[in-house]
Amino acid sequence: MIPKCANPACASTFDYRYGRVFRFLKRTTDGDGPVQHFWLCEECSRSYSLEYDEQRGVAIISPGPDTPSTGNVTSAA
Ligand SMILES: [Zn+2]
């Protein structure tokens, strides 16, 4: 069902006991399409996440420490 880690740079073969499985509904003009499954291995799921984009399909994202966490949050001191 899932051959390997969704990270193209990683060669880990699928093992449901480790890592993280993602499910995405592929949208078509007729409505919801088949569910697609993707998997990130233990190592990659620590650094990356997967996101579904209607135009580009599934993309690997890294919500690492580079992401600024400023936003509108005003924390109470
Ligand atoms: Zn991996």
Q: Topology of this structure?
A:
Elements: E1 20-28, E2 31-40, H1 42-47, E3 49-53, E4 57-61
Antiparallel strand pairs: 1-2, 3-4
CA gyration radius, whole angstroms: 16 Å
What is the total domain count?
A: 1
Q: What is the string of SSEs from the N terminus onward?
A: EEHEE
Mean pLDDT: 84
Oligomer: single chain
Described by strand count, sense and barrel closure, the largest sheet is: 2 strands, antiparallel
Number of strands: 4
Which consecutive residue ranges, at least 5 long each, have pLDDT under 50? none
Give the helix proportion (percent range): under 10%
The number of distinct helices, counting runs of at least 4 residues, comes to 1
Distinct ligand kinds: zinc ion
Strand-pairing-aware structural class: mainly beta
Strands across the major sheet, in which order? Answer: 1-2
Strand content: 35-45%
Shape: globular
The N- to C-terminal Cα distance equals 49 Å
